[in-house]
Design goal:
Order of helices and strands: HEHEEHHHEHEHE
Number of strands: 6
Number of domains: 1
Mean pLDDT: 87
Largest sheet: 6 strands, mixed
Strand content: 5-15%
Low-confidence stretches: 16-27, 101-106
Helix content: 25-40%
Number of helices: 7
Radius of gyration: 19 Å
Shape: globular
């Protein structure tokens, strides 16, 4: 199947034929690749509309397409408390390591079985992420900073290569309320989170944020330019301090 057809299939599946949530425990396909880990963090604290769902569906498709054989994908939720972040998916993409003729004769990995497993991997992935955006939940806060720090610490030893976040990135907690963040308070907040040990090492990790730029409320209006700039400036500096290899922040994946 060509790449465009795969992307279309994933998007259509997400938007129109979702089924119940599922959690996938990977078979031993992790050994068929480098073990590179991608963590997808999905914000559950916003009220998503049709546009958000389209953005999310395209991002989910893009993430799947990017995974290589043996790459591990973990999906976590972002809520009002880092301690309640739920792991809803954890699996390595099935496939067989490319080997020479002699090695291939003795390999126990079979392409036909791997293709079936990959279809199952995709279905489990889709059914795991669908409720995260399709079923709205009410939260009194949005704890982005502590959740990011928690995940960076949890997967520090697991070859974390890419951290992908679907969120408006608007912190709304006792730590800070980003809707009121201004250029003068950014440095003091960064100093505070560093002092509290909330800037965890993310050396050489690629950070990609999508779904950014809209307000947190039901109307999902676009953020005022100065608010958007301040929030983006905070996060770029935060990840720079953490040692991230690169940071991309935008609306689309």
């Amino acid at each position: 199947m060509s790449k465009p057809r795969v992307v279309i299939t994933v998007v259509l599946t997400l938007l129109s034929s979702w089924s119940n949530s599922a959690f996938s425990v990977a078979e031993d396909y992790c050994a068929q690749g480098s073990g590179a880990l991608t963590v997808l963090l999905v914000d559950r604290t916003s009220s998503y509309d049709v546009r958000d769902k389209e953005i999310f569906a395209n991002g989910v498709a893009g993430i799947y397409e990017r995974l290589e054989t043996g790459d591990r994908l973990i999906v976590h939720t972002l809520t009002d408390d880092f301690a309640t972040s739920e792991k809803v998916f954890d699996a390595c993409r099935p496939g067989c390591r490319q080997e020479g003729l002699v090695s291939g004769l003795f390999s126990q990995c079979r392409e036909s079985a791997a293709k079936v497993a990959d279809r199952r991997f995709l279905q489990n992935y889709l059914t795991s992420v669908k409720p995260l955006i399709d079923e709205q939940e009410e939260y009194p806060a949005s704890m982005v900073i502590e959740t990011v720090a928690h995940l960076a610490q949890e997967y520090d030893r697991d070859k974390l290569v890419t951290l992908i976040i679907f969120s408006d990135m608007i912190e709304h907690s006792r730590m800070s309320r980003f809707i009121y963040l201004n250029s003068k308070s950014i440095n003091s907040l960064l100093e505070k989170v560093e002092r509290l040990g909330l800037v965890r090492p993310m050396d050489d990790v690629q950070v990609e944020i999508f779904g950014f730029g809209r307000s947190h409320g039901d109307g999902r209006d676009g953020l005022r330019p100065e608010v958007k700039q301040n929030i983006e400036e905070f996060w770029r500096e935060y990840f720079r301090m953490a040692g991230a290899k690169s940071v991309r922040i935008g609306t689309n994946f």
